């Protein structure tokens, strides 16, 4: 590919990315928590369950670490152990509130300028357990500060997700073995 073709390809990608972000902005269509304390949310969360997708396929011991940055954004480090390759896998992204930082509606990106919804729909008063919905019903996570979660919390979150249209029978319950 010569310089002219490379420039055209890069221009097409830039225009496509801009159009995507303009025409399909991240929106929260679910009721999110409205009294979120972002500082308390920061730190390490263990994935308890998820609706599986390509990046997390075959992962155990999944954690998400959130760190508030000086520019107001949040660094996100997702990490898990790949059972097939027997290696740790990590992805670093960024997140930021969609509007009022007290609302649980954020957007997250692991692919440059393309963002997806990250909606905190339930969190307990001690910030030990959280239920997260994505931009659509394909993405859902139950998170905890510890790997062990009381059964009543799991059931509460699963029932809420089911009533909200999520295919909870497809949940992958994350193993923590490493």
From TrEMBL:
Q: Which InterPro entries match?
A: Calycin, Lipocalin_ApoD, Lipocalin_bac, Lipocalin_Blc-like_dom, Lipocalin_CS, Lipocln_cytosolic_FA-bd_dom
Gene3D superfamilies named in the record? 2.40.128.20
Enumerate the Pfam families for this protein: Lipocalin_2 (PF08212)
Domain named Lipocalin/cytosolic fatty-acid binding: residues: 36-175
Domain of life the protein comes from: Bacteria
The record's family statement is:
Belongs to the calycin superfamily. Lipocalin family.
Entries under PANTHER family matching the protein: APOLIPOPROTEIN D
Q: What is the official name of this protein in its record?
A: Lipocalin family protein
Its organism's taxonomic lineage begins at: Bacteria, Pseudomonadati, Bacteroidota, Sphingobacteriia, Sphingobacteriales
């Amino acid at each position: 590919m010569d310089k002219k073709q490379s420039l055209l390809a890069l221009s097409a990608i830039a225009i496509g990315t801009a159009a995507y972000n303009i025409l399909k902005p991240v929106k929260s269509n679910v009721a999110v928590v409205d009294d979120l304390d972002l500082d308390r949310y920061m730190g390490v969360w263990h994935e308890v369950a998820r609706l599986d997708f390509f990046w997390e396929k075959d992962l155990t011991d999944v954690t998400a670490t959130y760190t508030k940055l000086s520019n107001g954004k949040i660094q996100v480090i997702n990490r898990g152990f790949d059972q097939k390759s027997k290696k740790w896998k990590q992805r670093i992204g960024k997140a930021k509130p969609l509007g009022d930082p007290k609302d649980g509606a954020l957007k997250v990106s692991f692919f440059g300028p393309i963002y997806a919804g990250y909606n905190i729909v339930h969190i307990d008063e001690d910030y030990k357990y959280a239920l997260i919905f994505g931009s659509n019903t394909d993405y859902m996570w139950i998170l905890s500060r510890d790997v062990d979660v009381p059964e009543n919390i799991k059931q509460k979150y699963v029932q809420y997700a089911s009533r909200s249209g999520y295919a909870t029978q497809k949940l992958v319950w994350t193993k923590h073995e490493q």
